[in-house]
Amino acid sequence: MATQYVNNYAVFRVTSRAAYAVLLSYCVIGFVFLGGCSSQDNHVEVDFSRKIAVDKPMASESSKPKIRIAIGAMISPKETFSSYQDLMNYLGVKLDKQFEIVQRKTYDEINEMLGRGEVDLAFICSGPYVIGKETHNLQLVVAPEVNGSHFYNSYLIVNTGSQSISLDDLRGKTFAFTDPDSNSGKLAPTAMLAKMGESPETFFSSTTYTYSHDNSIMAVSKGMVDGASVDGLIWDYFNRTNPEITSSTKIIGKSENYGIPPVVAGKSLPHETRNEIKEALLRMNSDPKGREILKRLMIDRFVEAQDSWYDSIRETMTLKRRK
């Protein structure tokens, strides 16, 4: 695998059955969700171990109780930190606690840390919640409501110069997933292929994992892969806040509705503290400062989350396990 740098982006060139130039990334600080890749799969895993600087407030000693929270790297680490630090500061003031953002590369790492009590809370993708509920008894705290809905979709995207208008047109092409455990970035498109009697290994010439949705969007935008599957909430977020990122991509398909990525708690968080955080999040839209932060995150409000919202993901996972 050869690596070159173009306009401060790392471009990884990989040769598979057919030569293709794959993936760029905003090199990583070490957080972002998502898990490993089987060596038997026709997947290429991109190395995001290089680091970039992220502006953080200077660490200071505090006697306040510390809450460790992971923000699901649905977007890249630098964007994740800048988007959510104000929310952490807001909760810290409201609850007189110190909120510390913990960053990791994959969803699987975050689930494991929640299970071991090394992280107290996480803004996590829907697929990892379903897995973590089963393996680590993760508990729902709240869920965001976006555009009046607590559901979201996976988007299939291609470059605006592409002739592809449906998933079938991507047969034999290169494709980017976000993470092996991501619902919108892996499970949903895999389910679409299953309905066609196909799998990623048989359908695409080669696939790669980008480990964040904005990395996948950028890869399609720059023509480094032919298509990708991304979280519709993230594509919409960038289409509104940074349209230059999405302007060279177009949506050619959407999945069924899935329960929106929730906020979850691990076993280390006391029940009383979990309820305090839950109430603070539920009340944010009633507070001017809270509404301002929610608006920047493109969240209407936080609502009570229902485990049944994620049953369609469980059904998809069950079908996948049977195959």
Description:
It is a single chain. This protein has a domain at 66-149 and 259-322: Periplasmic binding protein-like II (D-Maltodextrin-Binding Protein, domain 2, 3-Layer(aba) Sandwich), CATH 3.40.190.10. It is built from eleven helices and 17 strands. The chain has helices spanning 77-95, 107-116, 126-136, 183-195, 200-203, 213-221, 232-241, 243-246, 271-282, 288-296, 311-322; strands at residues 2-6, 9-15, 19-25, 43-45, 66-71, 98-102, 121-123, 139-145, 151-152, 154-159, 174-177, 206-209, 227-231, 249-254, 258-259, 263-265, 301-303. A hairpin with a 3-residue loop joins strand 2 (9-15) and strand 3 (19-25). Helix 2 runs parallel beside helix 3 (126-136) and helix 4 (183-195) packs across helix 11 (311-322). The longest helix has 19 residues, at 77-95. The two termini are 32 Å apart. The relative contact order is 0.18.
